[in-house]
Design goal:
alpha/beta
Length: 347
C-alpha cells in the first residue's frame, strides 16, 4: 500500500502537512510518496527529528492556491504538487492520493487526470455525517448544479460505497428536500424523486428534511453540491457550538467539574464523533482511484486522519464495488433505451 501525499496544498502547508504525514508514517502501516518542495520538506522534517530515508520525495515547488482557477491544474500549474501527485496516481505509482488543497482544482484534476469510473457522468464529494448511524452525504461541494440523473448516479455509487465500507446490505437512499411529500422542492428535486422511485436497484425511502437526518431515516443522502455543502458546514458549526456550550456547563462550578470527571469517557467519545479533524477528509466518489479531499484548514492530526482514510478506502475494495455498480447502472439504462426504441419502431 503506497499513499501519495500533497504536501503543499491547504492553508497550513507545508508545516502542518509534513507533521501530519510524519504522524501517519509513525502510526499507519503504509509506504508514502511526498510531493512538494524538497527543501521545505527536509527543513521541517529535520526540525521534527524525523528521518526521511524511508520516504520517496517527488519535488514540486509550484502550488495551486485557494484562489486559483480549477482548470489551472491542467494548464498554468501542471507542475504543482497537486497535479504531479494526481499524475503519479494515474500512472499507478501509488494506490491513493490525499490533498488539503483547492477543492475545485482537486476535483477537476481527479476528473481529467485520474478519470471517472466508466458510465458515470460526474463524480461527487462524499462525507460521512456523525449521526446515530453513519449517513453518507453526496454531493457536498463538488457540483453546484446537477441534473436529476446526476442525483440518481450519486445514489447508485453512494449505495455501493456504504455496502462496501460499512457492510450495509441494502442502503436506504434519501433525497435532501424541504418536505417529505413527492411534490416538494424545485423541479430538480421533483424530477429526482420520480427517477429515484422508479430505480429498481435502489432502496429509495423518499425525501428527507434537514431535521430528520439525525433520526436514522437513511444511509445515503443525495443532494446537489451547493445544498450539500451548506448542510455539511451547518452540521460542523452546530457541533462546535454544542461542544463549546457543554464545556461551559461542565466547567461552571466545582460540582459540574466533578460530574464531568465522572462521565469523561462518554464526553470524549462525543467530542470525537463531532470533531471534523477525526474524520480528516472526504473521498471523491466516482473517480477510478481513491482520492481524498482533506479540509483546507487541516492541522497535523486532521491530515494524518485523512491519510488513514485513504488507506482504508484503498484497502476496502470500494473502487471495484463502485465500478461494478456503475456498469450495472449503465447496462440498465441501455436496456431501457433499447426497449423504448423497439416499441417506437413497432408502432
Amino acid at each position: 500500500m503506497k499513499i501519495i501525499v500533497d504536501i503543499m496544498g491547504g492553508d497550513n502547508a507545508p508545516e502542518e502537512t509534513v507533521k501530519g504525514a510524519i504522524m501517519a508514517t509513525r502510526e499507519l502501516d503504509a509506504e508514502y510518496i511526498w510531493v512538494g518542495d524538497r527543501n521545505a520538506i527536509e527543513s521541517i522534517a529535520k526540525a521534527e527529528n524525523f528521518d526521511l530515508s524511508g520516504i520517496e520525495i517527488v519535488h514540486a515547488e509550484d502550488v495551486i492556491t485557494m484562489e486559483d482557477d480549477p482548470l489551472s491544474i491542467t494548464r498554468a500549474k501542471k507542475q504543482s504538487s497537486m497535479a504531479v501527485g494526481l499524475r503519479l496516481l494515474a500512472e499507478g505509482r501509488g494506490d491513493a492520493f490525499v490533498s488539503t488543497g483547492n477543492t475545485g482544482a482537486l476535483f477537476t484534476g481527479a476528473t481529467l487526470i485520474v478519470r471517472k469510473i466508466k458510465g458515470l457522468q460526474r463524480a461527487g464529494i462524499g462525507t460521512v455525517l456523525p449521526m446515530k448511524n453513519p449517513v453518507l452525504l453526496l454531493d457536498c461541494g463538488a457540483n453546484v448544479t446537477v441534473t436529476d440523473e446526476n442525483l440518481e448516479q450519486f445514489a447508485v455509487i453512494g449505495s455501493a460505497y456504504m455496502r462496501k465500507m460499512f457492510g450495509i446490505a441494502s442502503p436506504r437512499v434519501g433525497l435532501l428536500n424541504n418536505g417529505t411529500e413527492a411534490c416538494k422542492g424545485t423541479e430538480l428535486q421533483q424530477a429526482a424523486y420520480r427517477r429515484l422511485s422508479e430505480a429498481p436497484d435502489l432502496n429509495f425511502v423518499g425525501n428527507i428534511e434537514g431535521s430528520a437526518i439525525a433520526a436514522d431515516r437513511c444511509d445515503v443522502l443525495v443532494a446537489d453540491g451547493f445544498t450539500g455543502n451548506i448542510l455539511l458546514k451547518s452540521i460542523e458549526g452546530v457541533g462546535k457550538f454544542m461542544l463549546s456550550k457543554l464545556k461551559g456547563v461542565f466547567y461552571s462550578s466545582l460540582v459540574t467539574k466533578l460530574a464531568a470527571a465522572v462521565i469523561k469517557k462518554p464526553l470524549y467519545a462525543m467530542k470525537k464523533d463531532l470533531d471534523p479533524n477525526e474524520q480528516g477528509g472526504s473521498p471523491i466518489l466516482g473517480i477510478s482511484k481513491p482520492v481524498i479531499k482533506a479540509h483546507g484548514s487541516s492541522k497535523a492530526k486532521a491530515f494524518k486522519n485523512a491519510i488513514r482514510q485513504a488507506i482504508a478506502f484503498s484497502q476496502s475494495g470500494a473502487i471495484e464495488e463502485l465500478t461494478e455498480a456503475a456498469a450495472a447502472y449503465a447496462a440498465r439504462k441501455k436496456a431501457a433505451r433499447e426497449r423504448v426504441s423497439s416499441q417506437s419502431s413497432a408502432e
